[in-house]
Amino acid sequence: MGVRLSFKQLECLVAVADAGSITAAAVACGISQAGVSLALTDLERRLGVQLLIRQRAKGVKLTAAGVRVVASARRLIEEAEDLQASAAAMDHEISGTLALGCYTSLAPFFIPPVLDEFAQRHPGLDVHVLEGAAEELITALRDGRCEVALLYADDGDDSLHMVPVRTSRPYLILAADHPLAAQPEVRLADIAHEPLIMFDVPSARNAVRMLEGAGLTARVRHMSPNIEVVRGLVARGVGYSVLVQRWPADVSFEGRPIASRTIADPTAEREVVLAWLDGVRLTRRARTLVDFCRTELKSPSPEP
């Protein structure tokens, strides 16, 4: 006879993993602390492994086996919700909850249309977004906190299945009155001697490698993880920068004009993808989002 588990036990385990304590998990599940403890003890007995380390006055901590079981439990719960939503749906209505991860620097370009246009098309669907670094998102995919994630293809690995959404090439931004702004294209050799204002996120740090690949040396003047700081300094003429995603307006936060120019040298494309764990069957909700992103977000918003 197979091991008999209940979804209530799995929900209690996921709630404890998210909340970090049995007390908070009991509130989230709407049952007593004793009920949560009993459900977890029985779950451990049926699986034959210890899932939690109970720390007095410090809550609970997942064991290595617990981390793996929680990830599987999340997927089972998602599939059950997807089955229930599909059975109850009328026509093509999509409902339920979808957890989407998004690389931080991509969020301004993708999250607004997802939470606006996509949400309007599917009012019964609740999209939860986790923004973070690529490593954080891949971890979230593995432990089940996200079903799909938007990131750059070169940040992924063999454990992920990836479908392309959009490709972009690095470009330069200069102060609008910079002498090179009069040219439609700028050679790296013509700008490399000037101060570089570097967008300090992994996706943009290849500016230095790009210059080095052309036999040039970057003169980094300032590094910032805040894109508006980078664009503001460039607009003031403090230096130039190299970005990947095309900003929809060539104006800084202060309202100063910025010139965006193509790099004349050969540059590698950066591919934005939707990724999920290889071998995992996507829910209907996630498949619908993948289709939306590939058809509606394959090109950036038109520049003014």
Helix content: 25-40%
DSSP summary: helix tally: 10
CATH top level label of the largest domain: Alpha Beta
Helix- and strand-based class? Answer: alpha/beta
- The coarse silhouette is elongated
> What is the averaged pLDDT score?
87
Instruction: Write the CATH architecture name of the largest domain.
Output: 3-Layer(aba) Sandwich
Termini, distance in Å? 66 Å
Give the beta-strand count. Answer: 13
Q: What is the CATH superfamily classification of the largest domain?
A: Periplasmic binding protein-like II
Radius of gyration: 24 Å
How many domains in all? 3
Any idea of the CATH topology of the largest domain?
Answer: D-Maltodextrin-Binding Protein, domain 2
The sequence of SSEs as H and E is HHHEEHEHEHEEEEHEHEHEEEH
Q: Outline the low-pLDDT stretches.
A: none
Strand content: 15-25%
Describe the largest sheet: 5 strands, mixed
> Strand order, biggest sheet?
4-3-5-13-6
Notes on the structure:
The structure is a single chain. With 304 residues, this protein is of the alpha/beta class. It has 3 domains: 7-69, Winged helix-like DNA-binding domain superfamily/Winged helix DNA-binding domain (Arc Repressor Mutant, subunit A), CATH 1.10.10; 90-167 and 272-296, D-Maltodextrin-Binding Protein, domain 2, CATH 3.40.190.10; 171-263, Periplasmic binding protein-like II (D-Maltodextrin-Binding Protein, domain 2), CATH 3.40.190. It has 10 helices and 13 strands. The protein has helices spanning 7-19, 22-29, 33-47, 64-88, 107-121, 134-142, 188-191, 206-213, 227-235, 284-296, and strands at residues 52-55, 59-62, 96-103, 125-132, 148-152, 160-168, 171-175, 185-186, 195-199, 219-224, 241-243, 258-263, 270-277. It has a 5-stranded mixed beta sheet, sandwiched between helices. Strands 8-12-7-11 form a 4-stranded mixed beta sheet. Helix 5 (107-121) links the parallel strand 3 (96-103) and strand 4 (125-132). The longest helix is centred in the first third of the chain and has 25 residues, at 64-88. The protein is elongated and about 70 Å long. The relative contact order is 0.14. The mean pLDDT is 87.
